[in-house]
Design goal:
The protein has 468 residues and is α+β, with helices and mostly antiparallel strands. Helices cover 18% and strands 26% of the residues.
Length: 468
């Protein structure tokens, strides 16, 4: 996610041959009835791409030890990755800086869901709700586990705002989301006490307190590392419905969510149901007073979960990406979905790899292997980088990231979560496809504007699975 470009366009002609500079066999990209150039039904099956890899498909790119070392390096070097285990006391100036860095009063005109301009008085009220005057001279952090999928917000409000009066998708106060079981440190509260400003591993932002259950520091911080556990490897999994414990019933678990297993005898009834066909996980729930309780919950054996991260292979990267195919684009994890950077980071999380949350931070992370581009980069340099692309590589342009899934002849293809999708019609004019979801497209025809391809505007190519 972040810094959305409104000029995401997909250019093609009915039969188009591009880039004779590449050594691979030239192919023609035709437009099927869907209008998505170069993409036929067979290419929407992950096995189509996995089979093109041959014996290399299941080669382990990084083993568990190497991934652990890479994550340690990420935590040490990347400033967007935060240590949730905060000092016992945090100075007032630090807490204030964290909040004001995020929650700066908007200076541009914003619109609400009724397409009306948000009044200045409303924005002033949001600034007041920050309660900056109530930040203690020294803050003692409190700790909590997330109990349900929780929106991370710029301000302590559910008010949705947009940059223009025709948009109702890109909520400018929506930052990201946290999933059940994620530990956070609470460092401040809104004036009405209904929101908490939290520090999580990948973000600092506002969360409604109803999504948090407060507990002892050691309990909260230890939950994320407890073993044995189940890791969600499907796009979405839910706990089993139960009327016995509503807080543990039908809870949404997104890809990458990790929950410890509960030590329950195999014949013990759990929430009114025998667990022999399920995993019994530990689920954080919120008591009436906001306190944390760890309760057993069931996740069906047939659900897409794993006892450990999936092996980091090209085949698994592709298969995990395709589990989201067709999901609606969700800016900042809105709509119980995700955006482009959330999409790629959750794919890699299912294989145990930690990435920054936003596109800009992913593209320039000091701990990742990357090729950077700027205005001085030549066309030849950019095309050489494209020629070297492998499945799993991440291609960044301003505000967007795409994941490479393979080649057809001289055409690299990507899967990406995009709210755009415009192509040239047969008359040469740009026409929106409104892809607005996880989509497969060729890379080379993608156009940033009338005069520039996406590859002309690349800021970075990142290869996550690379040994030092």
């Amino acid at each position: 996610m972040r810094i959305r470009s409104n000029m995401f366009v997909l250019a093609s002609a009915l039969a188009l041959v591009l880039s004779t500079a590449y050594a691979r066999e030239p192919v023609q990209l035709v437009r099927p009835p869907s209008g998505v150039v170069g993409v036929e039904a067979a290419q929407l099956d992950p096995q189509f791409w996995v089979s093109k890899l041959g014996t290399d498909a299941n080669r382990v790119l990084l083993d568990a030890a190497a991934i652990g070392a890479a994550n340690t390096k990420m935590r040490a070097q990347d400033p967007t990755i935060h240590d949730v285990a905060l000092p016992a006391s945090i100075p007032q100036a630090t807490v204030r800086e964290w909040i004001t860095d995020l929650s700066e009063r908007p200076t541009r005109t914003l619109y609400d869901e009724q397409h009306k301009e948000v009044p200045a008085a409303t924005l002033d009220g949001l600034v007041d709700a920050l309660a900056l005057d109530r930040i203690a001279a020294d803050t003692t952090p409190r700790y909590a586990l997330v109990v349900s999928r929780a929106a991370l917000r710029t301000f302590p409000t559910t008010l949705r705002v947009f940059s223009n009066n025709e948009d109702t998708d890109i909520d400018r106060f929506q930052e990201s989301a946290l999933f059940p079981g994620v530990p956070v440190a609470i460092v401040h509260e809104s004036r009405d006490g209904q929101w908490a400003f939290v520090v999580s591993q990948r973000y600092r932002a506002w969360v409604e307190r109803k999504h948090l259950a407060e507990g002892a520091r050691d309990v909260v911080l230890g939950f994320a590392d407890a073993a044995p556990y189940r890791l969600v490897t499907g796009a979405k999994v839910r706990t089993t419905y139960t009327p016995n414990l509503p807080q543990a019933s039908d809870v949404l678990l997104d890809m990458g969510t990790r929950l410890p297993l509960a030590a329950v005898p195999p014949d013990q009834i759990v929430n009114g149901q025998h667990p022999y066909s399920s995993h019994v996980v530990q689920l954080p729930i919120r008591e009436a007073d906001g306190a944390l309780r760890i309760a057993p919950a069931l996740v069906q054996d047939i659900s897409d979960t794993s006892a450990a991260p999936l092996p980091l292979t090209h085949a698994n990267i592709i298969r995990q990406a395709f589990k989201f195919l067709g999901e609606r684009y969700g800016w900042g994890h809105d709509y119980e979905a995700r955006d482009c950077s959330g999409f790629v980071s959750e794919i890699y999380a299912s294989m145990g790899v930690l990435l920054p949350r936003n596109t800009r931070d992913q593209s320039k992370s000091p701990s990742l292997h990357k090729t950077l581009f700027d205005d001085k980069s030549t066309r030849e340099q950019r095309e050489a980088a494209v020629e070297a692309l492998q499945p799993g590589d991440l291609v960044y342009i301003p505000g967007h990231v795409m994941m490479v899934i393979g080649w057809i002849g001289d055409q690299p293809f990507v899967i990406h979560d995009t709210n755009g999708g415009t192509m040239r019609a047969p008359d040469g004019k740009l026409r929106s496809l409104h892809l607005n979801g996880v989509s497969v497209t060729p890379l080379l025809p993608l156009m940033y504007d009338e005069d520039h391809r996406y590859v002309d505007r690349m800021t970075s190519v990142v290869r996550v699975a690379t040994q030092d």
